[in-house]
Design goal:
With 261 residues, the chain is an alpha/beta fold. It has eleven helices and ten strands. The chain starts with 5 loop residues before the first strand and ends in a 10-residue tail after the last helix.
Length: 261
């Protein structure tokens, strides 16, 4: 299968899905989201693929949604609705895949990029990686099951802190609070992650699939409900004047002036 926005490699039972919009810091638009979903479907169907790695090209893992494209939309609420229609199946697909999925976080993971990383089974990041919730600072609300996965990883209190204060977390802090599983030097990120993926690919993948399904049933029974709740929430937030102001301020590199409208 040919992809326009994704690089896809497969060897030794491991598939590497590499988001390939480096100039845009791998921000998600309809094309990239569609290609990611197609790549996951290939991994699902191919019995020779026994572990999956998701990463980004260039200096970012994924810096969230394509803010410039969102801002150009005359109806931001409708655009967010359309985007979540393609993004939510991607999140569900990561969880439903009966194979280990590793996020290899090579740089900034923000907004929807953080949601995607949190949905993966394991997260390994470079020492220069950074993390940010990023939605509320532009007048939007998290989607991609952020409000389910992130609290499960770091706890309700810390997740609330990310929502209300939206700090930028470095790799060390992300490891301290449980947002990632491991931090390695930048030069060691790919060999370390691929070594783990190959080890998992040689493992009892049938048992992994059942165990992953058990985790989903125990911890993520509200996944589809939460995705729908977040979809409605980001549509509602997207129709506010604050959201339009937040996106404009980000594009112009200035502090937003929110009015609660």
């Amino acid at each position: 299968m040919v992809f326009e926005n994704v690089l896809f490699d497969q060897s030794d039972g491991v598939a590497v899905i590499r988001m390939n919009r480096p100039k845009e810091m791998n921000t998600l638009d309809f094309g990239l989201t569609s290609d990611l979903l197609k790549a996951l479907e290939v991994c699902w169907d191919d019995g020779g693929i026994r572990a999956v790695v998701i990463t980004g090209s260039g200096r970012a893992f994924c810096a969230g949604g394509d803010v410039a494209a969102f801002y150009k939309s005359p109806d931001l609420g409708d655009t967010t609705r359309q985007m979540t229609k393609s993004f939510d199946p991607l999140i569900s697909g990561i969880r439903r895949m009966g194979k280990p999925v590793i996020a290899m976080i090579n740089g900034a993971a923000m907004g929807a990029g953080l949601s995607m990383a949190a949905a993966c089974d394991l997260r390994i990041c470079s020492s220069s990686a950074t993390f940010r919730q990023a939605y509320t600072s532009v007048g939007l609300v998290p989607d991609g099951a952020w409000s389910l996965f992130v609290p499960l990883l770091i706890g309700f209190g810390r997740a609330s802190e990310l929502i209300f204060t939206d700090p930028v977390l470095d790799a060390k802090r992300a490891l301290e609070i449980g947002l990632v599983n491991d931090v390695v030097n930048d030069s060691e990120l790919e060999p370390t992650t691929l070594s783990l993926a190959k080890r998992l690919a040689r493992g009892p993948v049938g048992s992994y699939a059942v165990a992953k399904d058990n985790l989903n049933r125990a911890m993520l029974t509200l996944l589809e409900t939460q995705l729908e709740q977040e979809r409605l929430g980001i549509m509602r937030a997207g129709r506010t004047k604050d959201a339009r102001e937040g996106l404009e301020a980000m594009l112009n590199r200035r502090k937003p002036e929110f009015r609660g409208e």
